[in-house]
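re: ur question from earlier - yeah i can do the single chain one, its not a big deal. heres the input i used so u can compare w yours
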Amino acid sequence: MPLRDALEKVDPYEPQPPMRVLAERLGLERIVKLASNEGAFGPLPASLAAYRAAAAELNRYPDGGATGLREGLAAVHGLPTAQVVPGNGADELIRLCGLAALDAGDAAVLPWPSFPSYLTAATVHGADAVRVPLRERALDLEAVLAVCQRSAPAGGRVRLVFLANPNNPTGSLLDHAELRDFLDALPPSILCVLDEAYAEYAEPEPEGPALLREGRDGLCVLRTFSKLYGLAAVRIGYALASPAVAAALDRVRPIFNVSQPAQEAALAGLGERDALTERVLHVRESRERLREALRGAGLCAAPSQANFVFADVPGGSGDELADRLLREGFIVRAMRGFGAIGAIRVTCGTDEENAAFSAALSRIAAR
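and the output i got, formated as tokens:
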């Protein structure tokens, strides 16, 4: 076959059937999705209005430079516009970081369990994905640094390191001082990608933008509108990067990678500060209640700094518990694909959804 050999090592994404299909199969009136870490609430009113207005010109190509959005994000984060790069969700930017940094035979280092897209971003380019185990469900920066400072397996070169902060799926947050020490010691030939997709929910918030304002080279910070802003369906995220890294990402990204309605919805959402603050407070309260419910059902639920809670199933299977919850009408994420077979991850929903989930979990535990 005239295809690249590296693709044989890439596992294709297997989407779950639509919720309406699952509901019909299981004979359920409704299914609540608490699996994908989406925001519990829909688009902000200003975003929805901007999206609808932009839809009137769907016959036109979008602004390939995402000029208005880049300027808005640059103002929010105190960086030059040229250091902002739009993406078709943070997921595309993860892949573009791999495209910009990795040649066949190179290596990318990532803590594990973490976001599986990091594995794909390395493997699809013929690079090695070097997984460094977590320590007590948190990123082990000392171990990651040790791998980065020595040769990668198979004679490859470490050129890229991915750090999710907070980590997906465990929700752990890196200490500011420890992260700075890590970046100071990281070889300058390695691109460090700080994936801050859940930054707004954390206490304290990760300081990726501040690190860039200090003028650090070889650094790329990823953020998204898919969670807090309720825009997961339109696929829009962004990178904040050092000038050289931003220029490289602009070289490899598709020209029209972000639609105009998505750009306008995201830009309008930046001004909704009060509503965004309310959403953050809701998540911070919800994740604690979910953790209590999981612990009450006998699971080992870790503290979280994101909009989800990670829980080990003592002596059990994450797949089995996820299936039992599905039959109760709740989709949660079994962690097999993240490297944690005996665990699940539960996304914060609305108050009503969280309460209904907790009741269903209690019924399962009682049986």
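The chain has two domains: 5-42+273-366, 45-269. not sure if urs matches, ping me
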